[in-house]
Amino acid sequence: MRRSLRTSATGTVGLVIVLAVLFCAITADWISPYDPLEQNIERKLQPPAWLKGGSWDHPLGTDQLGRDILSRIIHGSRVSMLISVAGTAVAIAVGVLLGSVSGYYGGKADAVIMRFVDVILSFPFILLAIFVVAVIGPGILNIILIAGFTSGVNMARIIRGEILGVKEMEYIEAIRSVGARDGTIILKHILPNIFNVLIVMATLEMAQLILVESSLSFLGLGVPAEVPTWGKMLSEFRTLILSDPWIAVFPGLAITLTVLGINLFGDWLRDYLDPKLNQTIK
């Protein structure tokens, strides 16, 4: 696996970006130069250090309240990665539950679950998330549950298709014939055979959830106002884009690079785990 990753430039770049963002999220309290909520009107709207009027005391400048942009971006990574990782965990749990019941048992259970999935998927993902958050209120936990559930419903269809193929294999029939319980068959003999698919879906879903969190925060439906997030920074800076265009570049760049890194690593992981796509990288 290491040799394969070393030969893939895009996979390596993606992994480096993901690890860097995770490092920032975990160590934000120690590596950020300032408190992300600390305000100082006297130093408001300072440009980045390399522009005229900038200072290396604030390498990326300050916002309209004098808060250090670099510190807020570092702390914003914590919220984005928390929602991304936790939401993906919820999505996998929901997708495995619905997909396993639908694919393994079939019949009425399959019909009911798939019609439910069709209804959910008939709405654009982000619009559904916005609607639910607007109804039940913002908050990190609410966003994790909402984004995780809606993503999990989408995963359920893919997992169902994988299970339909695996459950017809001869070894599954042999296990069933000796009296193994359905739960045991699903957990010990079917799900391990689609583990690669679950890993790839989880990796790519993380990028989607970062965009969802950023979109909700931009619209004011995300986390509480005092918590710095990349999407909220873009929302706060939108009125300053014409006068101070650099101010919106850095949170937007953080979102772009993080999503790009996860997608690059996810693409490499998909190729590595699927022997039919690329035998040579193994």
TL;DR?
This protein has 282 residues and is mainly alpha-helical.
Overview of this protein structure:
- There is one protein chain.
- The protein has helices at 2-6, 9-26, 28-31, 69-105, 107-121, 125-136, 140-166, 170-177, 182-190, 195-218, 230-237, 249-273.
- The N and C termini lie close together (7 Å).
- It is mainly alpha-helical and 282 residues long.
- Helix 7 packs antiparallel against helix 10 (195-218), helix 10 runs parallel beside helix 11 and helix 11 runs antiparallel to helix 12.
- It contains twelve helices and no strands.
- It has a single domain, classed as Orthogonal Bundle (MetI-like fold), CATH 1.10.3720.10.
Which strand-content bin applies to the residues?
under 5%
Given helix and strand content, the structural type is: mainly alpha
- Secondary structure: number of strands: 0
Going by CATH, what is the homologous superfamily? MetI-like
> What would CATH call the architecture?
Orthogonal Bundle
